[in-house]
Amino acid sequence: MDSVNNKTIDELLKHVSVRSFTDEPVTDDVVKTLVTAAQAASTASFQQSYSIIDVVDANLREKVTQASRNQRFMNQGGRLFIFCADLSRNDKMAQNLGIDVSHTIEGTDATLAGTIDATLAAQNMVIAAESMGLGVCFIGGVRDNISEVSELLNIPEHVFPVYGLVIGYPKGELNKIKPRLPFEAIYHQNQYQTDKLDIVKKYDDQTKQYYNDRYGHETDRSWARTAVNSLVKLPRSFMKKYLNSHNLSKH
After folding, report:
1. Could you tell me which of 163, 151, 202 has the C-alpha nearest to residue 179?
2. Who's near 119: CB < 8 A, 6+ residues apart?
3. Which of 48, 4, 16 is nearest to 129 (CA)?
4. Whole-angstrom distance, CA of residue 234 vs CA of residue 112
5. What is the number of H-type helices and E-type strands within the chain?
6. Structural element, H or E, at residue 227
7. Domain of 205?
8. CB-based contacts of 102, cutoff 8 Å, min separation 6
9. What whole-number distance in Å separates Cα of residue 73 and Cα of residue 64?
C-alpha cells in the first residue's frame, strides 16, 4: 500500500488487539470522552438503537468474565464495556406517542439495525481509544453464555449484548500487526467476483508464516484454520432461541 500522510489512517493501520493491561485506571473523564466519541457514529434513521454498559463493580465484572469463557484479561486493568443492541428505548418512545411498532421491533431487520448501530458506535470508541494511547480488545465471548450474561446485567426484552470491549493501557510489547486479506480479495467492482480463491490461498500461506514468527516455532496455525475452527467451536446455535425469548428477530 502506498504511504498516506494522514495521522488518522496511520492509527487505523496500526490496530492490534491487546490482551494485557497495566493497573493504570481509565478515569471517568476518559470514559465520558470515549462514550461521547462512540455516540458521534452514524446510526440508522437516527434511531441510536444501542446502549453501552460499563461494568465497574468488581464482583460483577468477575462473574461476566467467567461467563465469557473466563478470558482473564477481561478482568485485569482498564474498563469492560458491553455494547448492546437496544430496541427497548425506541419501543417505549413509540408507546409514548401512541404508535404500535412492536411488529417492526420484533423483526429481524430491527435486530440487524440495532447490531449495526452498536458496532458503528463501538468502532468509533476503538478509534478514539487508540488515538489516546489505549489498547482495545473485542469480546465475542459474552455471547457464549448470553443468557447468563444477560441475567447478570439485567438485560430487558428488546435488548441483547452484542459483544464486550476491553479498553486499558497496554502492558508490555504489542503483537505485530496481523496481515489482512489482500485488497484484491476484498474489493469487487460492480458485481461480486467468485474467482478469488487463489488470492486467498496465497494469503493463508502468508498468515501461517506470521504465526510461526509470532510463536517462535513451526505451527499449523493460519488464517483459514483460525477462522474455520472458530466456526466449528462456536456455532452459538442457541442465539435464535435467545433472541426470540427477548422478543427479537421473530420474523
Report:
1. 202
2. 83, 162
3. 16
4. 20
5. 11, 4
6. helix 223-233
7. 179-251
8. 91, 247
9. 12
Mind listing the pLDDT tens digit of every residue in the chain (251 residues)? 455 579 999 999 999 999 999 999 999 999 999 999 999 999 999 999 999 999 999 999 999 999 999 999 999 989 999 999 999 999 999 999 999 999 999 999 999 999 999 999 999 999 999 999 999 999 999 999 999 999 999 999 999 999 999 999 999 999 999 999 999 999 999 999 999 999 999 999 999 999 999 999 999 999 999 999 999 999 999 999 999 999 999 99
2 part of a folded domain: no
Q: At 189, phi and psi to the nearest 5?
A: -115, 125
Taking alpha carbons only, the member of 157, 150, 38 closest to residue 90 is: 157
Q: Which residue has the cell 428477530?
A: 249
SS3 state at 199: helix
3-state secondary structure at position 48: coil
User: Same domain for 37 and 79?
Assistant: yes
Asked if 68 and 140 sit in the same domain, the reply is: yes
Q: How many domains does the chain have?
A: 2
Q: Which of 162, 177, 192 corresponds to the end of one domain? A: 177
Same domain, 125 and 246: no
Distance, CA of 155 to CA of 160 (rounded, Å): 7
Residues 67, 80: Cα–Cα separation, whole Å: 14
**DSSP summary character for residue 17:** B
Are 39 and 150 in a shared domain? yes
